Amino acid sequence: MPTLPHRDLTRSNAQFRRAVKRLPLGVSSSFRYWGEDRTVYVARGKGGRVWDIDGNAYVDYRLGYGPAILGYADERVDEAARRGMEVGGVFALSTERELAVAERVAKMVPGVDLVRFSNSGTEAVMGALRLARAHTGRESYLLVEGGYHGLFDAAMWQADVEGWEAGSNSDPKIIPYGKGIPPTVKKLAHLVPMNDMQRLEDTFRKHGDSLAAMLIEPIQGNCCAISARADYVQLARKLCDDYGVMLIIDEVKTGFRVGKAGVQGLLGVTPDISTFAKAVGNGYPIALIGGREEVMRTFRHGGASHGGTYTAHSVSLAAAEECLRILDETPALETLAGHGERLKAGISAILDARGIVHSYSGHSSMFGLFFDAAPPDNYRAWKTSDYAFYDQMAYFLHDLGIIVEPDSREPWFMCEAHGLDEACLSDTLRAVEQAVDLTLDHLEAEAKKA
Ligand SMILES: Cc1ncc(COP(=O)(O)O)c(C=O)c1O
Asked: Domain 75-329, what fold?
């Protein structure tokens, strides 16, 4: 019988009680709140690990939701950022490094001719949608259920799969992510389930002439790494061409992670516009809008507006230059995907030994774990998978020194440092084995109670 792990969070708990008086939920993003007695405050991160203010060490597979592609406090990138600091910040003028980074991006991603910088994924996708609207002169747009594209109103509509009756003939309701999002905006948003070719064709037939853009995250980085089939994205490309719609591939999570040319490179589909963020600067705030020349030139006076006081900040830009150099010129991406492969094999050996059916979605560099024979191929199918096992296991993993998202919809992210530190693998697998056994015991005890 495995023993319940004890994790001392005395200082984090005390910090929470103080912080909640000044910060809503005691945090700076609502997703960082894990309950009054389990919200973690980080002291520092290094490589693939973080330490909380109580001194607990964790192997981290959230990596700040993906940005730390090389690992925390990477000396090469931090050194470059310090050089960026010498430049002096932002000037409301341009610096030479913008071109150097844009050249690197265009070299790595064949679908990108021109680049504009932003500070966050939200800003980049917001700019991309505006660009698509400016270029087409249309307002509506198409989203894929389960996709997430940031915190601006147009992107904050989702399929209510949690409140939907699985297998019913009706579609899930379209609901906002929260309060404060004007319902009038909803009129412009259409949603389709991933990988349903017929629905995609029907939707284009019905609305194609009024769509400015189709926005798709072909590996859904906020929905279990559910993946689009190549033929689905190819059909989307064709329909966008047929109806004059801009195909926006949102690579905020997949970009410079699943491959040098992102998920579009893996699928062999060239979008009109792409957005990148997380991995670009190994955690320094920088994002990109990239695309085909004719479309990108719509960013001009009298065309689509774009800018921002902090855009192309000298520190982030220098970090991006070095981070992208490393990703382009060294085997970093193979190293981190290799860790993902070994981790999946190790987890499978543990689960197989206990007869637990499971599968993986996504890419070895960012994968979802399912307790089902095959991963769901769209968000609706997630509803029928056994995520109760996952959620409980994640809870125990935190106590055992492994950080994964408490919600099964967030994939596990790999970084180069995980692959370079052999102990990350053994520490993780030891904890997974214990967490699986604790979960089995817990669920058995719950079943007896019921
Ligand atoms: C695919 C995708 N697009 C956009 C965003 C928004 O990025 P940010 O949080 O940097 O604003 C995210 C964030 O997780 C994302 O995963």
From this structure: Aspartate Aminotransferase; domain 2 (3.40.640)
